[in-house]
Amino acid sequence: MSVGTAFYPRTAPMNQRLEWRDWAGYFAASLYSDHHDVEYTAIRTAAALIDVSPLYKYRVSGPDAERLVDRVITRDATKIKVGGVVYTCWCDEDGRVIDDGTIARLDDSTFRWTSADPSLRWFGLNAAGLQVDIEDISESLAALALQGPLSRGVLEAASGESFAELRYFGRRPAQIRGIEIDVSRTGYTGDLGYELWVPAGSAVELWDALMGAGASYGLRPAGMLALDVARLEAGLILIEVDFFSSRHALIPEQSYSPFEIGLGRLVNFTKEANFVGRRALEAEQAAGGPARRLVGLELDWDAIETLHRKQGLPPQISAIAWRTPVPVYLDGRQIGRATSGTWSPTLKKSIALGSVPAACSEPGARLGVEWTVEARRGTVGAIVTSLPFFDPERKRA
Asked: Is-above-0.90 flag for pTM?
């Protein structure tokens, strides 16, 4: 049974359509307005507030905290400085991705680690022989994503502090109305944005302060439907949609190495620690890399129009991102699948993420994607493109 997050006393009255979904046992708003495009527009042109409290959150501390993190993740944990945050993945012994998330270094011996799936047992298993404490703070720590080109203005208005010096993937403590929070310049929208970490008992007060300060900036709450469109434009993958955790894979095809889902850049073979899955990943690379790769796909709008015209219908496409995989073809033969996609209001294109053979993964390759109109299956052309689809300079500036 789902329960409300620490922000539920404020988010529930604002959810006009009473549309909720379950996220890790919590109620997550699908949308607050009559249509999610209003919320998406806030993400891209103003500022939006997204409740991301259902993320699993862990506090890792102690003399060997760094050793544990370095033992588990594919990146070099020794390079995470105090005040820094990294995005990373971690694998099983076969080099298959278990999960991905962010790790923030709070001080020399303390880290805040987020994940999409429960990870306490896995971290504990890998902590054998180490002096380290792993605390599940998922319920005691709430989180808000403040995203959009005006998000810095909202944050500065609410806190009375300047955040111009806080760089991309940096973090620092702050205060809003006397509430102690931690601010990281991170997010899941591919835009300028921050994530605010606050004790659950102060969540409602923080929400009120941000909404009050953000009124003149066009700040509005945004739900999962708007977030799904934004993260696809940013080329960001979603667990159990664009890839599966190896713990949930029922067949080998459902497990992925980091190099198959666009996370190869996060694998550091030069670090000293013998991280979990290292040998398997080194062997994979020595053999020429994995057979499949994650790519961006831009779908041919003229072909979509043609399929609708054949059925006597005007062209139409859902504004809601789709998460059901569809076949990808080359010369009439299925070679892969598009895992999720959407109409991009900003780019004015139909885009998708796809898993295709390495030989078909170079930008410019021409493929086909299955498209169904009135229960009749057709194929529309698709061009492989580099990710992300949308990457504004303001995200890092």
From this structure: yes
